[in-house]
Design brief:
457 residues; alpha+beta; Outer membrane efflux proteins (OEP); two-stranded parallel sheet; 9 helices; 66% helix
């Protein structure tokens, strides 16, 4: 059915409405930009800066840092057991003049000043070797706290990287949704122009408008997901100044150069969780020897210096007490029931449990490294395939638009080619960030920094 004689009166109102809609969108965009400018300057945040902020401000990392600092005091305490203990006591007393009765007779008590001091020096010469094992245990506990901090920071570091990638993925999907809306708007204009000249039915216009509305809803959902991802990133880095954030690090897929056997060997040597269990094993071994040392004697030396004096009101002091004291003592608990056997058994069980835990972690690390390596190789292959799919879908969309413009194809065919192109481009975005997420998991499982330098700036 030809409607060429009606195209002129209907084209101008539609063009006017499209112009009004365009102006409204421009004004809304300008208002949004002005609101962002008033909220604060845009914060340019690279991955490296985000990691540095997370190490300084993330509360979980700070808690691990405080525990690490406290562990150093335990080493000083252990060394302090080798040093003598020195104590001092002093007294200054003033007694007023007065009277008291003794056997019914009154006596006069003069004004009196009393002073006294005492020095105590105690040194444990031999504590059955416990002091040496306490030092070893304290050192091991300090090393365990350091490894625990490294392990916590490594996990948080991986979480920040993963969230940064997730935020960039959502931003890319927002940009992809904007490109789709531009395509759909072009399809609406194309369908309306062909309808105006009577080449297609109203159904093509309605389908194009429906697809545009669906694309706009998808764009809103993508923007909401991006905002939630940005908020999660703020939390992981320990908070950021209010205002918009611009993530500046770009990610380009590269061929993974990793050898899985080399990664497994390095992970078993360097992973913080393995170092943590090794330090705990040394601490438990020292605890076992401390429990065993209860079967041996202890030797102690003590020296005391005591002086006291009293005086009347004329301050003529005279020593009332002057004593020196020293002693060597031997303490050997020959039998105390079975408490020492109980303590030794518990310490040995703790040591064996830690050894089993270390083996469990080693097996888990090996499994996770091999799984992560396989995943990153698969992600790389999927990305390469998706690049080819985008090229094919883009060409298919170009041909579909050409066929529809010339009347050789239907609008349904055009929509199908547009959907295939959108899916291919979305899959390419997903595969790009899936590759880097797999790289983050490989870092998490190995304890190694595997990101290329350009992927952090």
């Amino acid at each position: 059915m030809k409607r060429g004689h009606m195209s002129s009166p209907t084209l101008y109102p539609r063009a006017f409405h499209r112009l009004a809609l365009t102006l409204f969108c421009l004004l809304a965009t300008a208002a949004g930009v002005l609101a962002q400018a008033q909220a604060g300057d845009t914060l340019r945040l690279s991955l490296r800066v985000a990691l540095e902020a997370g190490q300084r401000e993330n509360p979980v990392v700070l808690q691990a840092a405080f525990s690490r600092s406290a562990a150093g005091a335990g080493v000083w305490d252990a060394y302090g057991n080798l040093m003598p203990q020195v104590g001092f006591q002093g007294l200054a007393q003033r007694s007023e003049a007065g009277t008291f009765n003794l056997s019914g007779r009154p006596f006069v008590s003069p004004l009196t000043y009393t002073t006294a001091y005492q020095w105590d020096f105690t040194h444990t010469l031999l504590d059955a070797g416990r002091d040496i094992f306490r030092i070893r245990g304290a050192r091991a506990e300090s090393e365990r706290a350091i490894a625990a901090y490294d392990s916590q920071w490594w996990q948080t570091r991986a979480d920040i990287k993963q969230q940064y990638l997730g935020t960039r993925r959502h931003q890319a999907l927002v940009a992809q949704a904007a490109r789709e809306i531009e395509r759909l708007e072009h399809h609406v204009l194309l369908a309306e122009s062909r309808y105006d000249v009577g080449e297609v039915t109203k159904s093509d216009v309605l389908q194009s408008q429906l697809s545009l509305n669906q694309g706009q809803v998808g764009s809103l959902e993508a923007q909401q997901a991006a905002e939630e991802a940005r908020l999660a990133l703020r939390r992981l880095v320990g908070g950021l100044p209010p205002g918009p954030i611009e993530l500046t690090t770009n990610f380009e897929v590269f061929r993974p150069p990793f050898d899985v056997e080399n990664l497994v060997d390095r992970a078993l040597d360097l992973h913080p969780s393995v170092r943590e269990t090794e330090a705990q094993e040394r601490a438990d071994r020292a605890g076992l020897w401390i429990a065993r040392s209860a079967y041996f004697p202890g030797l102690q030396f003590q020296y005391s210096l005591s002086r006291s004096a009293a005086d009347t009101s004329d301050f003529q002091f005279s020593d009332l007490d002057s004593r020196n004291f020293w002693a060597f003592s031997l303490n050997w608990q020959l039998f105390d029931g079975f408490s020492r056997l109980n303590e030794t058994s518990r310490a040995n069980a703790a040591l064996q449990s830690t050894r089993a835990e270390r083996r469990r972690r080693e097996l888990s690390i090996e499994e996770s490294v091999r799984t992560a390596h396989s995943r990153i190789m698969t992600s790389y292959a999927a990305h390469q395939a998706n690049m080819t799919s985008v090229e094919l879908a883009t060409e298919d969309l170009r041909l579909g638009q050409a066929r529809y413009e010339t009347g050789a194809g239907s609008f349904v065919d055009l929509l199908d080619s547009q959907v295939r192109a959108a899916e291919a481009e979305t899959d390419l975005i997903a595969s790009t960030y899936d590759f880097y997420v797999a790289l983050v998991e490989l870092e998490r499982s190995t304890g190694l920094d595997l990101f290329p330098e350009r992927a952090s700036e």
